[in-house]
Fold this protein.
Amino acid sequence: MDIRAHVSMVFHLDKCIGCHTCSVACKNIWTDRKGTEYMWWNNVETKPGTGYPTQWEDQEKYKGGWALGEDGRIHLRLHDRTNGLSNIFYNPALPTIDDYYEPWTYDYENLFNAPEGDDQPTARAVSMITGKPMDNIEAGPNWDDDLGGSPVYAANDVNLNKLTEEEREQLAEIERVVFFYLPRICNHCLNPGCVAACPAGAIYKRGEDGIVLISQEKCRAWRMCISGCPYKKTYFNWSSGKSEKCILCVPRLESGQPPACFHSCVGRIRYLGVLLYDADMIEKSTSVPDSELVAAQRAMIMDPFDPAIIAAAKQNKISDAMIAAAQNSPVYKFVKKWQIALPLHAEFRTLPMLYYVPPMLPILAKTKDGNYDIEGLDREGLPAMLGSLEKARMPIKYMASLFSAGNVEEVEAAYRKLIAVRIFKRAQKVKDYQQAEVDAALAAGKTNPEEVEAIFRLTSLPTYEERFVVPPLGRESAVEAWENPLERKTEAGFGVRNKIAKRKF
């Protein structure tokens, strides 16, 4: 047993309002430089939809992540060592700028300083890469924003391939049109494809917290990391000639603050904490059939209150403060204790450490005489207005394709528990459900009133400290490295001894 600590995240999709505040916060801090114009380390997609870059989920096209071989072991989809060497100067699976979008600005100079004339001056779109005017703008980082449910974009969503022809046609009916938002950042995976694909060894995971970073000194611009990442969250800076990616705002974490996209989130959908996991189980957890991937990943997460786990963690030099952060982690509750948060595309076998609570799906109804008809819905053991899965507009198979590698039972179990929370609280506040219906919902969700109340509190009424349990990350060591050289320098006679103010962490 090799117990390690990992900074992990949960996004509660039922609370995301698609405002893109997270994306703008990240953009302003990290990717407002030359060469990063097209990069969105944090982006918000509308699903069903093609996403950013276009159809990033199609690994037949992009060859990202891992695949389970006939020998029972996982292999990079992109290449093996021999093919990697032969294709090192040519990567056929590399996304092009058209797969993202060509970033543009506007010729405001002409708009403001155009000579007087009979026509209204305009600000033409200008490419931020070539500097030349762009006649047609055909894509953007959120081009299908709020249009994901429309046939134009939804038809190209690769997750719809798991549906039957009848289900695909039903989604195009006006009564069934539905969409939801999917914010994405780097998942900081336990088994990252980008790390394995890099020929220069420039990408690495920090041992103390699992955050995946790219050494700008070692990067040689081979760009295999971009193809190796199935989520397409590694980017190439065409100006510097280096790859870049989300660093989970390490400087903020090391000063006790959550990442900028977490801090700025208007819907408060984001949670951050620490998970303790058994590194010896990584290979086994990635080598199981698709239907078992979610359960295998969940089994890797260890109980931070178990004395044996605590002893093993301390043997690996994990501090008491880090263990305490794991015990208070909201991520542990959502993922392991309540089992309502699921990994995005577990079939990529990278063991992503960003989990999603799936959104509650609106109920299918028909229009009758110009009115919204709900009387025809069968209760089927649960109040229909609050989420009968059989009557949901979005097929459960679509959600399973996103969050459980196609395992419908895993998604249904999460939804049953979420439905139980909603029915239980509505019975308390609105009092429009009988106790028998509440009991049926609790039984279907395999939960109890105490757990339901805890889920409700952490979902709807969490404090700042409950959402973000930021671990210490060895900041005291960083402060020592910063202070001691100055202390030694002044003691050696280079002027009056400096009084260094103690920083509060």
